[in-house]
Amino acid sequence: MNKSILIVEDEKTAASYLEKFITDLGYSSLGIVVSGEEAISRSLQAKPDLILMDIILEGPIDGIYAARQINQSNDIPIIFITSSNDMKTVDRVKVSNPFGYIVKPIDKNELKSIIDMAFLRHNMEKMLRNNEHKLSTILNSIADGVIVTDDQGYITYMNPVAEDMTEYAAGAKPEKKLKDIIRIENTAIQSLRDNTAIPLPHDLNYNYLITQSGKKIPVDYSMAPQKDRGGSFAGSVMVIRDITDRVKSEEMVMESISLLRKTMGGMIQAIASTIETRDPYTAGHQRRVSDLAREIAKAMGLPTSSIEGVRMAGVIHDLGKISVPAEILSKPGRLTEIEFSLIKIHPQIGFEIIKPIDFPWPVADIIYQHHERIDGSGYPRGLSGGDLMIEAMILTVADVVEAMASHRPYRASLGIEKALAEIAANKGTLYDRDVVDTCIKLFRDNGYVMAQV
């Protein structure tokens, strides 16, 4: 016979999704009620096997109060559903002895796990009151490791899964405390696959159970205090779940992302190389600008995503010059007004070429703004300070410094000191103050040297 579930939810869309989820998971729905009063009345009449209870409801009483009233006359597991996870709400929920707590939006798999665990806990508590042997039978059959301790922390029970996972046979060895057997460390993701796997960024953290032999197993775990009938602390139950398969799956996803980034980087470099073949005098200019811009962004403490965005934009910031005749790009003398007007539209051309590409960073906008100035005297749109992205202002300074410090067909290199003097003289007028100060510090204090490409 299917387990029956009563849904207490006053938001129609959320209630409909919940009802569909529970029927998809094989449970029977006893319908939907929208107030605490209805929840109390319906639970007395229909006696559901479980209640999914929203906290904020129609009427004068909320879900937490309704749960307390239901618990006084019925032994029904209640799982709270809410859009809030603040500590005050959590503390109020704890008083009503909840069997679960889900924060919206709800994931069906998470809901299934919480419902399954709620039914398991409910059965366990019922059986504990009647028959300890039956409780042990259930614990021995579940897939998670379960460890029970007394009020002094000594292990009184370990199911076979826990014994296999920890490599400690509780029944065959002298009594020990939980802290002597269980050691869990939090660490960045470790490769669970072969050595040919693509290196992963260390931004995924997991808890690792350290076994008796030193093996590390990625796990999720929880500790729940147990109380006797008088309400006094009687020990703890620890539940440990091996999440090796999940970690492997997430590692595969990260590898896919890494491959995509490599592919994207190759595409960007190919575009950059195409531009530089048309303008041999600025060969390497984009890569040097990209490297300097990245170092400025890092020194300014920008987020990783912004650093990567400005680096990518730097590699192709002059892409729009593909529309400028090659003889103008390599002209040794001063440009005419018409020739310079053609040069001035290259940021817009670059923007138009790049904007259809769905980069994870605002590359097209950074390219569009890299010749703007904070006083509005730049081109092609004459934007001023408040309209400019920090990434674009960084690219602007890097572009000016590299251009002045490098050889051009119409002049020899002016040297890095003149380049730094130029941005220093115009900081706050043409260039952002913080960007300029950071750039100068990189060269003079940190010993930065322009990349050789």
Task: Give the secondary structure arrangement, pairings included.
Layout: E1 4-8, H1 12-24, E2 28-33, H2 36-46, E3 50-54, H3 63-73, E4 78-82, H4 87-95, E5 100-103, H5 108-130, H6 132-141, E6 145-149, E7 155-158, H7 160-166, H8 178-181, E8 184-188, E9 205-210, E10 216-227, E11 233-242, H9 244-278, H10 285-299, H11 304-315, H12 326-329, H13 337-344, H14 346-354, H15 363-369, H16 390-405, H17 416-425, H18 433-444
Helix pairs in contact: 2-3, 5-6, 10-11, 10-16, 10-18, 11-15, 11-16, 14-15, 15-16, 16-17
Which tags fit this structure?
5-stranded parallel sheet, 48% helix, 453 residues, alpha/beta, 18 helices
Can you offer a commentary on this structure?
By secondary structure, the protein is α/β, with parallel strands linked by helices. The protein has 18 helices and 11 strands. The chain has a 6-stranded antiparallel β-sheet. A 5-stranded parallel β-sheet has the order 2-1-3-4-5, sandwiched between helices. Strand 3, helix 3 and strand 4 form a beta-alpha-beta unit.
Would you kindly provide a brief summary of this structure?
This protein is α/β, with parallel strands linked by helices and about 450 residues long. The protein has helices at about 10-25, 35-45, 65-75, 85-95, 110-130, 130-140, 160-165, 180, 245-280, 285-300, 305-315, 325-330, 335-345, 345-355, 365-370, 390-405, 415-425, 435-445, and strands at about 5-10, 30-35, 50-55, 80, 100-105, 145-150, 155-160, 185-190, 205-210, 215-225, 235-240.
